[in-house]
């Protein structure tokens, strides 16, 4: 795979805020480190380490745990019941236009009823309830497993801070007691003073080592979409964090979680759209289409020879664009068009956008171990064609072609236009990601710290201050000193 194709895949994934977890993962992982740095600079004594452990631990579970558990279940439970996990569960949704029966019917029309895809669809068609049960079980187990793991991380973080606070209080009370009674020369006083004195290099280094480590119907709709799937887990994480929060830090938790959920989910798409418009105006190009489409040689060729414009004009005459995704009869007509016209420029465009998934074929091995897969032109009938997404892509295409008046039909002008559009889209994607990271990492942290200072006059975590006071009181009450 060439460097340009790798770059295209990365930027395309980063700009997909409605069907990919890649932009979520990127923003989440980077903002974690920004949060740690902000708290290390301006927060309380234990904030940076706690944030490092909890945020990165959560990310590892959130982004790795859920897919891993699902993959394990695919390889075990699904395999045991002889059901393919690759069949999109949305094909079983009541009223779905791209249903199991529809896909099987199209395969029959193409003479592929003896093929692998038809066989997999048939198994699901004969075991619909089992397939739904397997899917719900996979979702539930994966979600509960990740929440359980997160509970362990939060418990570890809080225990670690508690031990550090106990150590700090013990040191301070030992020194205070020794100085107050002027018993430094006595056996007991000397023992405590020597053990916890700042001049004791071993104790100092041990403390630094610890600190240095500081350098995470409606229901079905959530399960049917990878973004909503992640958001449901994130809501669960928010609830868990609030429930396990210590006295004095629940406000901090809710401010942070509100920012994270808002900028990872509902605000992600409008922010990307806003930057598309901004950089589109700056470069005088339409930047609404997916980066992978703008970088596609096929897309460029079909614009240069006017076949895409001609196909679009015919498509708009044959279909009421506003009814696509809303009227089942229109949706069926669109789906039939897609299956029956594989060489049509509009269908090729929808394959480039990912709205119509194609079969991936193994074309070789990398290092003799990993399969190298390449997308073929054959439609993947196990996947689901979302007609609402098709409608959005067609509207974006119409806008782009309208913006290219006087350019279409000229190879050099088309190439130049797409080069500018790619640049605009690239800046848009990177800016949207950077803005999200700034909002969740810097702005959110500053608001939390300001709220702390306004209430207590300090940026220290009130929960840790309360913990320290409680431990000091307990030690004094027990008469340890």
Please provide a written account of the structure.
The structure is a single chain. The chain is mainly alpha-helical and 481 residues long. The chain has helices at 3-14, 22-42, 47-80, 100-109, 116-126, 128-181, 187-196, 201-212, 219-224, 226-244, 250-264, 268-283, 291-294, 297-304, 307-318, 328-340, 345-353, 387-403, 411-456, 462-478, and strands at 358-366, 370-379. It has a two-stranded antiparallel sheet. Helix 6 packs across helix 7 (187-196), helix 11 (250-264) packs antiparallel against helix 19 (411-456) and helix 14 (297-304) crosses helix 19. The radius of gyration is 29 Å and the shape is globular. The N and C termini lie far apart (69 Å). Residues 183-218 have low confidence and may be disordered.
Topology:
Elements: H1 3-14, H2 22-42, H3 47-80, H4 100-109, H5 116-126, H6 128-181, H7 187-196, H8 201-212, H9 219-224, H10 226-244, H11 250-264, H12 268-283, H13 291-294, H14 297-304, H15 307-318, H16 328-340, H17 345-353, E1 358-366, E2 370-379, H18 387-403, H19 411-456, H20 462-478
Antiparallel strand pairs: 1-2
Total beta strands: 2
Radius of gyration, in angstroms, nearest whole number: 29 Å
What's the N-to-C terminus distance?
69 Å
Order of helices and strands: HHHHHHHHHHHHHHHHHEEHHH
Strand order of the largest sheet: 1-2
Give the proportion of residues in helices.
over 70%
- Largest sheet features: 2 strands, antiparallel
Individual helix count: 20
Based on CA inertia axes, which overall geometry fits? globular
Secondary structure category: mainly alpha
Mean pLDDT: 83
Q: What percent strand?
A: under 5%
Low-confidence stretches: 183-218
């Amino acid at each position: 795979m060439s460097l340009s194709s790798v770059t295209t895949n990365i930027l395309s994934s980063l700009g997909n805020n409605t069907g990919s977890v890649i932009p979520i993962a990127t923003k989440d992982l980077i903002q974690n480190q920004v949060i740690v740095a902000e708290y290390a600079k301006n927060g309380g004594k234990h904030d940076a380490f706690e944030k490092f452990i909890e945020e990165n631990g959560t990310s590892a579970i959130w982004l790795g745990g859920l897919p891993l558990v699902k993959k394990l279940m695919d390889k075990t439970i699904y395999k045991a019941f002889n059901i393919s996990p690759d069949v999109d569960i949305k094909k079983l949704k009541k009223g779905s236009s791209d249903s199991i029966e529809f896909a099987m019917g199209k395969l029959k029309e193409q003479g592929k009823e003896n093929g692998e895809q038809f066989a997999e669809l048939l198994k699901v068609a004969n075991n619909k309830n089992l397939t739904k049960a397997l899917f719900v079980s996979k979702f539930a187990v994966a979600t509960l497993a990740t929440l359980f793991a997160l509970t362990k991380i939060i418990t570890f973080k809080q225990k670690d801070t508690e031990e550090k606070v106990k150590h700090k209080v013990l040191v301070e009370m030992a020194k205070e007691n020794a100085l107050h009674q002027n018993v430094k020369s006595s056996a007991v006083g000397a023992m405590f003073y020597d053990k916890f004195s700042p001049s004791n290099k071993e104790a100092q280094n041990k403390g630094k080592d610890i600190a240095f480590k500081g350098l995470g119907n409606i229901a079905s709709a959530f399960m049917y979409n990878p973004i909503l799937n992640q958001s449901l887990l994130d809501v669960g994480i928010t609830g868990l964090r609030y429930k396990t929060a210590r006295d004095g830090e629940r406000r901090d938790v809710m401010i942070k979680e509100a920012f994270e959920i808002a900028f990872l989910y509902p605000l992600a798409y409008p922010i990307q759209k806003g930057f598309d418009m901004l950089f589109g105006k700056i470069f005088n190009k339409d930047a609404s289409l997916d980066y992978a489409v703008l970088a596609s040689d096929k897309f460029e060729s079909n614009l240069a020879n006017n076949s895409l414009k001609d196909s679009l004009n015919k498509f708009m005459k044959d279909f009421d664009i506003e009814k696509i995704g809303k009227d089942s009869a229109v949706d069926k007509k669109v789906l039939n068009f897609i299956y029956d016209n594989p060489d049509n420029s509009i269908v090729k465009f929808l394959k480039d956008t990912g709205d119509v998934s194609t079969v991936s074929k193994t074309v070789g091995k990398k290092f003799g171990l990993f399969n190298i897969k390449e997308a073929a032109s054959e439609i993947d009938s196990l996947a689901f064609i979302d007609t609402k997404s098709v409608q959005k892509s067609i509207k974006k295409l119409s806008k782009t072609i309208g913006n290219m008046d006087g350019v279409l039909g000229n190879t050099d002008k088309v190439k130049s236009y797409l080069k500018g559009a790619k640049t605009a889209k690239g800046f848009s994607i990177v800016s949207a990601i950077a803005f999200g990271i700034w909002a969740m990492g810097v702005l959110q942290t500053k608001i939390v710290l300001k709220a702390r200072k306004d209430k207590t006059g300090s940026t220290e975590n009130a929960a840790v201050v309360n913990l320290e006071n409680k431990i000091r009181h307990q030690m004094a009450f027990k008469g340890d000193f």
